[in-house]
Amino acid sequence: MDCSLLVSAPLFSGYGEKEIEKILSGINHRLRRFRSGSLIAMNGEKVNSLRLVISGITKGEMVDFSGRIIKIEEIPAPGALAAAFIFGKKNNFPVNVIAMTDVEILIIEKEEFLKLLIRHERILVNFLEMISTRSQFLSEKIKFLSFKTIKGKLAQYFLQRTGNKSSSFVLDVTQNDLADYFGVARPSIARALGEMEKDGIITARGRYITIKDGEKLSMLTAE
C-alpha cells in the first residue's frame, strides 16, 4: 500500500510516510477497493473496524419512511467511516455508505486498532480529535433538522456563515448541496431564496448573498 496517501489523514497527523509504514507493519490491516456506485456499508451493519478512505469519495445517505433518499454528507479521502461508533455500545452504521467514485479503503479490525491506540499516544490524541470533530458536525446537523421551515434552515446557515446580522458572502456550496444537506428538494431551496429576496431580507446573485435585514433573518430561525 502507498503510505503517502495516509500522510494527510487526520489519524496520522504529525507522521511522515516512513513512520506510517513502520506503524502499519506492526498490525494486521487490509485494503479493499469498491467501484463507483457500490454499497460499502449498510445501515445497521456492525462497525467492527476502522475504515479509512484512502482514495476516492464516499457518501453517507439514509432513506426516510416515504422512500426519499437523504444525503447526510460526502466523505472524501482521507476521511474515516463511522469512526465514532467503533467503541460504542451500539456500534452500528447509522447510514448507508456508498462509493461516489472508485474507492480504496484501509481496514483495521477493532482489536488491531486498539493496539495501535495503546502503542502510539499521538494517534490516540488524533483519534479523539477526529471523533470530537465528528460530534460537533452532528450537533450542527441536528440544529438544522430542528428548524421546521426551509427558510429557517437557510437563515441559520447564513447567520453562521456571516457571524453577524449584516454582511455579504459567497456560498461555498451549490443549491443542490444545500438541498441534500437540508434533506429537501432543490426547487424548494430556490423558492425559499426567492421569497426571502421578495421580503427584502436578502439579495441573491448566483452564489453571492447579501443580508439586507438581519433582524428579519434572525426571526426566521424561530420558524
Q: What does the model show?
A:
The protein is an alpha+beta fold. It folds into two domains: 3-140, Jelly Rolls, CATH 2.60.120.10; 147-220, Orthogonal Bundle (Arc Repressor Mutant, subunit A), CATH 1.10.10.10. It contains seven helices and ten strands. The protein has helices spanning 17-25, 110-119, 121-146, 150-162, 175-182, 186-198, 214-220; strands at 30-34, 39-41, 49-55, 57-63, 69-76, 96-99, 103-109, 168-170, 202-205, 208-211. The strands form three sheets. The chain has a four-stranded antiparallel beta sheet with strand order 2-6-4-5. α2 crosses α3 and α5 (175-182) crosses α6. The longest helix has 26 residues, at 121-146. The radius of gyration is 20 Å and the shape is elongated. The N and C termini lie far apart (51 Å).
Please outline what is shown here.
With 223 residues, the chain is α+β, with helices and mostly antiparallel strands.
